[in-house]
């Protein structure tokens, strides 16, 4: 016979469902299993971000793996490279060639229009018009006028610039000692880069003279690098190839000092803002930091060295036989004035920024490929 009163089990079930504690738990349980939460189309943004993060980690891992494999193969052929050994400096010289020669050659069309506008500001209204006129008159080959002396010259310069910088940075550091080298590191970077560039420009100058003459004469005065060298030496002797050396030093030495010193400090600052130390990050991240640091350094380089760059173009195109260096500089400045020294700056900022960023990316990739540390972001010496 059924009881008129509810059983204890029924009372417990009914009251438990109305309890504040159990009611909230039930509500949370129902929320966690709500059908809309299982619909990924309602949360596309979150899903895409997670996918991008996962893809980025995957690509970074794959890039590091590929670099490791390439580096391993290189070490099998060349052996382990000890820091600051002759083999190390040879690797840096090759890295400088790879970084500088092809990258400068790639931006020859920009350099061509820039040089012609520096010599005659009224020749083209802008880059697009310049390339269009050159292409219609001379074809694609005309757009790349001067590519061969650019490749030869900047390959030679890159060898002495990067190899020399690594050598003199170590040499000057050993002269003053590790603690002082770190304390006055910016001065060390400036001295090492200036010394390296002083030597590198002697190798660059003959090719630069031919390149500028080819690019600033219409039609070009020579068909190629060695044809141009022969024409210059036949008319002016060996000295004709070096008459732009002083303004080249005036352009390139401040440029390179800014390029290396600012790059080192920018990279150091980037790692300073990032959590952890440089050694905590993978090869892909380190190469990315090198590119960003190089691009920012390149913008500073372009501004610092631009007046001398204009003077080099003018001097190689307009210097009269036997005219003294001081006289020709004074004559050119009188013709173009202060504002004329800044002709083509916008193009050069884009060109040099991209160029410098790519050079540091290639150079540090080369170092990683040879199992060497990337440039910049040095840690403070340990306290003894």
Structural summary, described in words:
By secondary structure, the protein is mainly alpha-helical. It is 77% helix and 0% strand. Helix 9 (185-216) crosses helix 12 and helix 11 packs antiparallel against helix 12. It is globular, with a radius of gyration of 31 Å. The N and C termini lie far apart (94 Å). Mean pLDDT is 82; it is low at 45-49.
| Helix-and-strand structural type | mainly alpha
How many helical elements?
14
Distance between the termini: 94 Å
Query: Any idea what the radius of gyration is?
Result: 31 Å
Estimated helix fraction: over 70%
What summary fits the major beta sheet? none
Mean pLDDT: 82
Q: How many β strands by DSSP?
A: 0
Q: Give the amount of beta strand, in percent.
A: under 5%
Poorly predicted regions are: 45-49
Specify the overall morphology: globular
**String of helices and strands:** HHHHHHHHHHHHHH
């Amino acid at each position: 016979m059924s009881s008129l009163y509810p059983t204890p089990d029924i009372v417990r079930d009914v009251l438990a469902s109305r309890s504040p504690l159990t009611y909230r738990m039930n509500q949370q349980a129902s929320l966690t299993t709500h059908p809309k939460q299982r619909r990924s189309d309602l949360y596309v943004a979150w899903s895409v971000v997670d996918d991008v993060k996962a893809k980025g980690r995957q690509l970074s891992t794959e890039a590091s793996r590929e670099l490791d494999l390439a580096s391993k193969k290189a070490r099998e052929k060349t052996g382990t490279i000890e820091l600051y050994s002759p083999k190390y400096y040879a690797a840096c010289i090759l890295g400088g060639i790879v970084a500088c020669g092809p990258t400068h050659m790639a931006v020859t069309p920009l350099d061509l229009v820039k040089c012609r506008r520096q010599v005659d500001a009224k020749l083209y209204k802008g880059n697009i018009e310049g390339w269009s006129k050159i292409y219609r008159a001379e074809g694609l080959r005309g757009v790349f006028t001067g590519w061969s002396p650019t490749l030869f010259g900047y390959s030679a310069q890159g060898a002495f610039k990067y190899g020399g910088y690594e050598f003199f940075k170590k040499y000057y550091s050993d002269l003053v000692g590790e603690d002082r080298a770190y304390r006055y590191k910016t001065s060390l970077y400036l001295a090492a880069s200036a010394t390296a560039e002083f030597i590198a420009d002697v190798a660059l100058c003959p090719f630069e003279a031919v390149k500028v003459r080819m690019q600033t004469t219409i039609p070009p005065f020579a068909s190629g690098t060695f044809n141009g060298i022969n024409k210059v030496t036949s008319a002016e002797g060996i000295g004709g190839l070096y008459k732009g050396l002083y303004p080249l030093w005036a352009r390139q030495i401040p440029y390179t000092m800014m390029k290396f010193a600012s790059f080192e400090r920018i990279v150091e600052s980037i790692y300073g803002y990032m959590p952890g130390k440089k050694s905590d990050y993978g090869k892909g991240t380190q190469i990315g930091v090198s590119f960003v640091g190089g691009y920012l350094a390149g913008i500073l380089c372009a501004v610092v060295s631009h007046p001398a760059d204009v003077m080099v173009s003018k001097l190689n195109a307009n210097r009269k036989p036997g005219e003294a260096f001081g006289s020709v500089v004074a004559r050119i400045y009188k013709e173009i004035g202060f504002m004329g020294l800044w002709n083509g700056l916008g193009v050069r900022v884009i060109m040099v920024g991209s160029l410098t960023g790519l050079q540091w990316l290639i150079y540090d990739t080369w170092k990683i490929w040879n199992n060497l540390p990337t440039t910049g972001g040095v840690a403070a010496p340990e306290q003894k």
